[in-house]
Prior knowledge:
Helix content: over 70%
Order of helices and strands: HEEHH
Structural class: mainly alpha
Shape: rod-shaped
Distance between the termini: 31 Å
Strand order of the largest sheet: 1-2
Number of strands: 2
Number of domains: 1
Oligomer: single chain
Number of helices: 3
Amino acid sequence: xxxxxxxxxxxxxxxxxxxxxxxxxxxxxxxxxxxxxxxxxxxxxxxxxxxxxxxxxxxxxxxxxxxxxxxxxxxxxxxxxxxxxxxxxxxxxxxxxxxxxxxxxxxxxxxxxxxxxxxxxxxxxxxxxxxxxxxxxxxxxxxxxxxxxxxxxxxxxxxxxxxxxxxxxxxx
Length: 172
């Protein structure tokens, strides 16, 4: 499933590809309102990507909680089994060994589930981080190119310089 931010970056790329080339330069003329509209959509999509990362983290916590609950249930079952077998000394020894084995199994299973949940969350968060970094790099490059084109066009039409927008400025 392609994320919304990647789709918006694709749209921005299409806008740049469809823009008119400025003769004798690497610059492209695009509709500033269209470019700003896409940038606004990207700004709105980024918080949704963060919510997605939070969901992954919450899923990890849920898996860990299930593992702990399952381990506790296994411990309780082992205790109940041990108490039922306490009738004689031989049975007591056997029950103690079985309970310890079940406890060890439960702890191993819980550790395994925790490790799997941590690995899943780490992979998902690393992928999201890489995706967001790539998106930011693409957005920064696009903003720089757009600002240069605006400044060049403004200086050609008015003969005066036009202040460029800073990276973090909001679009009205």
